[in-house]
């Protein structure tokens, strides 16, 4: 009985570990699909503009922009998950040990400054910032650049999706601020279950709400970590109001994003080195 319960617990734990990544992937592709539909079918709204050359060029530019952001979000997220931020495979010790080094009794090894043990990842992480519950992995020295780049493109993508979904809010509120329109915007699930709206109206309202809430959440994360990056701090150091490893604004940018930090938004290749 104990063995069966242990197996069930391990499977549930493994499922919960991958659930945030699966959910985020579903939301990203759902938002991309909905915005693509808005670009290809709903816009432009005027019938005399639907078949013009400008309309075709407008749609092409928008589709290229949104899929450029989608590819960069997925690519940076994949690199973030594939890059192990832990001390595994890193030589620690020797004559380089000095002030600030500590001994981790869980990993049974000496760890350098800014390295700490994560009880979710069950390992010590180099320059540990925090454990990201949305990716199920720690943010550390090796994958910090991919984390920031992913946040940047998610912020741009959600800003773009929110602006594109402005027409959805206009359509919902065109008859005024009524109880029906307010509930559709705030509680679309209840409106769908009660049969007050169609599945199509629910999908548009739900994704539009997700874009706005996601944009606000990602904005807070992105600007907070951008602030930490230019100050040369980790989240733990910010909590304790310490900046012992700051190299100046330019030095901190080089340390986090590489020497070609100004090109990292274009390709992750420029983030290395």
What is the count of DSSP helices, taking H or I runs of 4+ residues?
Answer: 9
Run of helices and strands: HHEEEEEEHHHHHHH
Q: N-to-C terminal Cα separation, in Å?
A: 53 Å
Report the structural category.
mainly alpha
Beta-strand percentage?
5-15%
Helix content: 55-70%
Flag low-confidence runs. none
Mean pLDDT: 83
Rg (C-alpha, Å)? 23 Å
Shape: globular
Largest beta sheet: what is the strand line-up? 1-2
**The biggest beta sheet, please?**
2 strands, antiparallel
Number of domains: 2
Report the strand count.
6
Catalytic activity: L-cysteinyl-[protein] + hexadecanoyl-CoA = S-hexadecanoyl-L-cysteinyl-[protein] + CoA
Subcellular location: Membrane
InterPro entries: Palmitoyltrfase_DHHC, PFA4/ZDH16/20/ERF2-like
Family: Belongs to the DHHC palmitoyltransferase family.
């Amino acid at each position: 009985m104990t063995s069966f319960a242990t197996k069930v617990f391990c499977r549930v734990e493994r499922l919960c570990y991958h659930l945030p990544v699966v959910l985020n992937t579903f939301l990203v592709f759902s938002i991309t699909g909905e915005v693509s539909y808005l670009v290809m079918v709903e816009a432009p709204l005027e019938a005399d503009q639907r078949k013009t050359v400008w309309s075709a060029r407008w749609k092409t530019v928008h589709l290229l922009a949104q899929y450029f952001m989608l590819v960069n979000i997925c690519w940076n997220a994949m690199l973030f998950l594939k890059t192990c931020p832990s001390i595994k495979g890193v030589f620690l010790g020797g004559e380089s040990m000095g002030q600030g080094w500590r001994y981790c009794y869980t990993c049974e090894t000496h760890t350098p400054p800014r390295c700490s043990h994560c009880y979710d990842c069950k390992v010590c992480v180099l320059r540990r910032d925090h454990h990201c519950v949305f990716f199920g992995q720690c943010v550390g020295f090796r994958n910090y650049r991919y984390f920031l780049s992913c946040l940047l493109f998610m912020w741009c993508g959600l800003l773009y999706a929110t602006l594109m979904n402005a027409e959805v809010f206009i359509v919902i509120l065109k008859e005024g601020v009524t109880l029906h329109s307010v509930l559709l915007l705030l509680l679309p699930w209840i409106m769908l279950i009660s049969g007050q709206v169609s599945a199509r109206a629910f999908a548009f309202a739900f994704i539009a709400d997700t874009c706005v809430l996601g944009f606000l959440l990602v904005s807070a994360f992105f600007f907070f970590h951008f602030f930490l990056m230019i100050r040369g701090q980790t989240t733990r150091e910010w909590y304790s109001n310490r900046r012992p490893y700051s190299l100046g604004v330019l030095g901190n940018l080089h340390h986090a994003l590489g020497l070609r930090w100004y090109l990292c938004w274009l390709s992750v290749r420029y983030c290395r080195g």
